[in-house]
Amino acid sequence: MQQERCSSSDRPLDPGCLQARDAERSADRPACAPVDFPVAVVLPAGGSGERVGLPTPKQFCTIFNRPLISYTIQAFERLPWIGTVVVVVSKENHDLMLNIVQKFNHTKVNVIHGGTTRHRSIFNGLQAFCSTSNSLTPKPKVVIIHDAVRPFVEEDLLLKITLAAKEQGASGAIRPLVSTIIATSSEGYLDHSLERAKYRASEMPQGFLYDIIFQAYQRCSEFDFEFGSECLHLALQYCGVNAKLIEGPPTLWKVTYKRDLAAAEAIIKETLSRSACIIAGAEAEAAELAKTLQKNLNMMETDVIPCAKESNAEYLSKTQNFIHLSVCQRYMHTQTTGSNFLGVLEMVKHFEDTDHTRLYPVVIVWVQLNMTKQSVDSQKTDELAAFRSLASEVIQGNVLLYGIQIEHTKVPEQWERSVERLTQITVALIRDRNAALTGQLLHV
C-alpha cells in the first residue's frame, strides 16, 4: 500500500517556492539551531471537500494545471532537513495521488491509504514509519502533521515548530481569532460570549516527538478517532505533554471554500511575478530598450542577458518570466520572423531539457522593436498565423507565449509614452498569466 519515492537527478528549480526563497536564506539565520535529527511529515489528504462545493476534492483541484496538494508537498520537499512526506489518501484516490507524485517529480513522498476519519488517517500515516521492511520511511525523531490544503507554509515557522517539538514534545501553530466566539441556547438565542483576547485559533502545522504522538494515538478512545479534531489535545490527554504554541503568519490559512482557490491562485501569481529575465539582441536599440525596461520594472528583480544560449542557463533557471527583445529592420520579413522564432524555440527547448516548466508555467513576452515606418496593418496573415501556431504548440509544454510590437520613434516624448505602455502591458501579462491571450500580437 506504500509507494516508493521517485528518483530524478534533475529537480526543477523553485521560484521562491511561494515564500520568497526562504529556504535559500536559512543558512543566514544564526538564531535558529540546526536541524540535525530526522524529521518527517504526515499529510492527511483523504477528505472529500464538501464545503468547497465541487465534484473534485479540494486537495486535487488544480491551479495552473497543478493540483493544490502538489504545492503543499513541495513546501516540505524543498527543505533538505525534511526526509519523508507521507501522504494519506482514500483508496479511491490512491492511483490519482501516485500519478501526481510521478508527474510532478515528488521525490520524498510515500502514499498510503487513509481511514474513515481524519484521526484514523493520521494514525495510518504514523504507522507507516513502523514498517521495518521499508527503508524509505525510517522512524523520525520529530514528525510534522499538516493539512494538505495549506500550501503557504514558511520555513521559518516549520523550523520553530520542529525545534519546539524536539524540546517540549509537542508544538503547534496558532493565530489570533478574527471573530468573537459566542455560545447559543437550545432555543437559538445568545447564551454568552468569550473574551476574544484570551483565545487563539489552533492551526497547522503541528509538530511532535514521534514516540509521543504515536503513543497518544495508541491510547486514545474510539470517540477520539470518530469525533476528535485536535492532535495537540491527544498528546496532552494521553501523554501529559503540554504543547508549545507558536503564532504563525497571516498566510497560514487553508483552502476551505471555493473562493479560497481563487485566493490561492492570486498568491501564486503574485509570487511568480516577482522576477523576470530580459533577453536582448546585439543591436544598440535592443540594448537601450532592455535597460529602460529594467529600470521601469522596478517592482521586479530583473536581469538583462544578451542571448538565451546554454552559457546563460543559470539565468534561465532563476525565474519563470522572460522578455525576449528583437529588432525588426524590415518589418515582419519572413527571414527576420523566422530568426526571432528560432530564439524563442531555443528557450523552449532548454526548458524542456531542464524540466523547468514541470511545476510552474513559463511566460515569454516576445517584444519586437519595429525600426521601419511601415504600418502595423500591413502585417502578413501567414506570419501572424505562424506566431499563433507556435504559441498554441508551446502552451502544451506549460509555456505561455505573448507578442508585443513597439514602434521605434526618435521623438522623446512619444518614445517615453510607448515604452511606458510596453511596461504596463508586460507587467499585466506576467502577473495575469492568462492562457487565453497566448498567440496574440499586441501593438504599442
From TrEMBL:
One Pfam match: ISPD_C
Gene Ontology molecular function terms on file: D-ribitol-5-phosphate cytidylyltransferase activity
Principal location class: cytoplasm
Residues of the D-ribitol-5-phosphate cytidylyltransferase C-terminal domain: 274-422
Enzyme Commission number(s): 2.7.7.40
Locations listed in the record: Cytoplasm, Cytosol
Gene Ontology terms: biological process: isoprenoid biosynthetic process; protein O-linked glycosylation via mannose
Enzyme class: transferase
Reaction catalysis annotation: D-ribose 5-phosphate + CTP + H(+) = CDP-D-ribose + diphosphate; D-ribulose 5-phosphate + CTP + H(+) = CDP-D-ribulose + diphosphate; D-ribitol 5-phosphate + CTP + H(+) = CDP-L-ribitol + diphosphate
Pathway(s) this gene product operates in, as recorded in its UniProt entry: Protein modification; protein glycosylation
Alphabetical UniProt keywords: Cytoplasm, Nucleotidyltransferase, Transferase
GO CC terms: cytosol
Record keyword Membrane present: no
Role of this protein: Cytidylyltransferase required for protein O-linked mannosylation. Catalyzes the formation of CDP-ribitol nucleotide sugar from D-ribitol 5-phosphate. CDP-ribitol is a substrate of FKTN during the biosynthesis of the phosphorylated O-mannosyl trisaccharide (N-acetylgalactosamine-beta-3-N-acetylglucosamine-beta-4-(phosphate-6-)mannose), a carbohydrate structure present in alpha-dystroglycan (DAG1), which is required for binding laminin G-like domain-containing extracellular proteins with high affinity.
Family: Belongs to the IspD/TarI cytidylyltransferase family. IspD subfamily.
Subunit details: Homodimer.
PANTHER family: D-RIBITOL-5-PHOSPHATE CYTIDYLYLTRANSFERASE (PTHR43015:SF1)
UniProt name for this protein: D-ribitol-5-phosphate cytidylyltransferase
Organism of this sequence: Cyprinus carpio (Common carp)
